[in-house]
Amino acid sequence: MKEQKRLKNERKYKNWEELPTEGRLYRYDVMGRSGWVSCYVKEVDNNENNIRFFQEIYNGNGKLIEIHHKYPEDTGHKSL
């Protein structure tokens, strides 16, 4: 089961890094039409179970301007 989850995450999220906790941090970037970038970030433990999931919004200059924590609790958009 763990391997199936890992393969699914690797197909969906093209970028990832191994964490010191033996988990992984997956990233999926989406370019907006006006130059903004939305990054979906998923952190999983060593069994590929979700620990947290959030979205980062960057403006056209690459500056982080918003974070939206979605899991484990949806806290809504927070401007920085």
Question: Topology, pairings included?
Answer:
Blueprint: H1 2-12, E1 15-18, E2 24-31, E3 37-44, E4 50-58, E5 64-71, E6 76-79
Antiparallel strand pairs: 1-2, 2-3, 3-4, 4-5, 5-6
Biggest sheet character? 6 strands, antiparallel
Which percent bin holds the helix content? Answer: 10-25%
State the secondary-structure class: mainly beta
Shape type: globular
Detail the poorly predicted runs. Answer: none
Q: What fraction of residues sit in β-strands?
A: over 45%
The strand line-up of the biggest sheet is 1-2-3-4-5-6
Structure description:
This protein has 80 residues and is mainly beta. It has one domain (2-79). 14% of the residues lie in helices and 51% in strands. The chain has 1 helix and 6 strands; from the N terminus they run αββββββ. The chain has one helix at 2-12; strands spanning 15-18, 24-31, 37-44, 50-58, 64-71, 76-79. It has a 6-stranded antiparallel sheet, covered by helices on one side. β4 (50-58) and β5 form a beta hairpin. The longest helix is centred in the first third of the chain and has 11 residues, at 2-12.
